[in-house]
Amino acid sequence: MKSADVAIVGAGIVGLATALETLRCYPGARVLVLEKEPGPAAHQTGHNSGVIHSGIYYRPGSLKARYSVEGAARMVKFCSEQDVPYRICGKVIVAVRPEQVPQLEELYRRGLANGVPGVRMLDAAGLHEIEPNAAGVRAIHVPGTGITDYKQVAQRYAEMIARSGGEVRYGEKIRGVRQTSDQVVLSTDGGEYGAAYVVNCAGLHSDRIARSAGAQVKDRIIPFRGEYYTLEPSRHDLIRGLIYPVPDPRFPFLGVHFTLRITGEVEAGPNAVLAFSREGYSKGRINARDLAELTAFPGFWRMARKYWRTGSAEIYRSFSKRAFVAALQELVPAIQSNDLRDGGSGVRAQLVEPSGSLVDDFRLIHDRRITHVCNVPSPAATASLAIAANIVAEFAARAELKLGQTVQSSS
Ligand SMILES: Cc1cc2nc3c(=O)[nH]c(=O)nc-3n(C[C@H](O)[C@H](O)[C@H](O)COP(=O)(O)OP(=O)(O)OC[C@H]3O[C@@H](n4cnc5c(N)ncnc54)[C@H](O)[C@@H]3O)c2cc1C
Fold this sequence. Notes:
Helix content: 25-40%
CATH superfamily of the largest domain: FAD/NAD(P)-binding domain
Oligomer: single chain
Radius of gyration: 21 Å
Number of helices: 11
Distance between the termini: 17 Å
Bound molecules: flavin-adenine dinucleotide
Strand content: 25-35%
Number of domains: 2
């Protein structure tokens, strides 16, 4: 059996950041990342909006708030030191109706409480100065929000892991996990790997890996697809930075918005549509196993009962470009249907409780020699280095693991 000190399942941005952070804290540790796809960032990490989030949205004291503020600063430093393209373009969150102002003010309070630099309230004239084509009664300006390409960030993490003596193996799908008294054994079609410590960063499949390892996880990942349109280049002058609506506080999604990409393109989206396949990037995609598990989960039916109205509206907007454009016109009235062509999509791994509630905060489950990273949707790309630092600190602190000693005895 091949062995490692720390094995990580998944070469998305969180798994790779964890491997890199382990090697930074424990130079010489045998660190192995096992990924089922032929390259890094094949799922959420390679299909997101590319925003370096500031941390304004999240409940003060939550993991999302802490890790996004710290993670954003680390991400900007990383991109600048490693020559990964990034840009601090700023963003506005816009209340388009007076009744949204109290929720906007709550976001402003959160921004201050979370220590987000430079946030300020704008009136309609102030908004017009920053985004002349946006319409709103009030807005928040977050000058420090940035953009990057997380696929490139993940690729750079993978290169640095290899340079530091770690290994990333592609085409290795984990099919089983078992814990013995002194190690964790991961089975793939190619054989078995033993590790003193394992971190499950399997994104859309992390709950399955956790259950196969014997963790008592009653919650399930429910996939929510986010679909984008791309703005015609001739209309780019309508958007200067990032323009977001006031989000519905019942959901961990931000509402369809305009995003500048690091390539210079402008995207509109993503919506949040229930997907019937965990890797269902197109509308018609159904995976029989995913669908059977989804419909057997009581939390799905409870969620459907609670939010059927919003869920149906999202499905309608997914099929109706006119409805999508109408939502965008609330923010930028000059946008027309002809200005938009079909764009890409991504699928979010959202943990849902048996009660039907969507888990709002990041959730990491520490079970003996394994950490299961079970709910790290947005802003986890931004926060990846901060999440990784926390995971490494957690497994280093566990008295029975003594990673330093494991490393010494294996070297
Ligand atoms: C539409 C969309 C927009 C977003 N926008 C932003 C944004 O602007 N800013 C931001 O900060 N965040 C954003 N996010 C969130 C961000 O992309 C995710 O939080 C982040 O990528 C999660 O990284 P991950 O490594 O946990 O998961 P993933 O990137 O999904 O990686 C998990 C990896 O595990 C592998 N894997 C799964 N099962 C197995 C197995 N059995 N064996 C081996 N490997 C396995 C997968 O192949 C995959 O490579 C967005 C997400 C989406 C979907």
